[in-house]
Design a protein that fits this description.
This protein is mainly alpha-helical and 189 residues long. It has 2 domains: 49 residues, Homeodomain-like (Arc Repressor Mutant, subunit A); 113 residues, Tetracycline Repressor, domain 2 (Orthogonal Bundle). Helix content is 65%, strand content 0%. Helix 4 packs parallel to helix 7, helix 5 packs parallel to helix 8 and helix 7 packs across helix 8.
């Protein structure tokens, strides 16, 4: 029988909120949201589950909020050249969709959790990019919310694998996403 060496606590990174969120994200990505428990998370981090509460005093509720913040907070780059807001928004939308699809297990939380702080910076940066592109304040506010809702909603449909138009053919999700993005951004005045 070969004995495994004991894991030396000195070789581990110190426990931090960021490390906890990353480990939780790995569990959700690999096993699904339903398999995320504080005990399983503690095992993944090689700590007692109670040690997690030192960093997340509200426990699993705070952990779930942290997952949403980690996945859903995606501001548009502050370096948007004048007249290039549309390109920046398209790039952001494609990157955000990819992030949501990469962490599809967290997507139900993004849709249902009451965590406006996770999306506040994203909305503000979308509005700013739209204003830099020449959109009026009210149009920028409406478009920012519409764009964010479109990307999240499209990712949710894509994860479900639904062909919501009833088509009996495979859906080209990339083409469908880009076509919808044209509709959303084409209406900005």
């Amino acid at each position: 029988m070969v004995r495994q060496p004991a894991i030396n606590a000195r070789n581990r990174a110190p426990l931090s909120t960021e490390r906890i969120i990353e480990a939780a994200l790995q569990i959700v990505d690999g096993q699904g949201l339903g398999r995320l428990t504080m005990r399983r998370l503690g095992d993944a981090l090689e700590v007692e589950a109670m040690a997690i509460y030192h960093h997340l005093p509200r426990g699993k509720e705070q952990l779930l909020d942290g997952l949403v913040a980690h996945v859903a907070a995606a501001p548009v780059s502050a370096d948007v050249p004048a007249g290039r807001a549309g390109d920046a928004l398209r790039g952001w939308a494609r990157d955000y969709r990819a992030r949501l699809l990469e962490h599809a297990g967290v997507l139900p939380l993004v849709v249902t959790r009451r965590n406006p702080a996770a999306l506040t910076a994203t909305i503000a940066s979308l509005r700013e990019a739209l204003r830099l592109g020449g959109a009026a304040e009210e149009a920028a506010a409406v478009t920012a919310h519409t764009l964010l809702g479109y990307v999240i909603g499209h990712a949710a449909l894509e994860v479900r694998g639904t062909a919501e138009d009833g088509a009996d053919r495979a859906v080209n999700w990339d083409a469908r996403f880009d076509a919808g993005l044209d509709v959303v951004l084409g209406g900005v005045r």
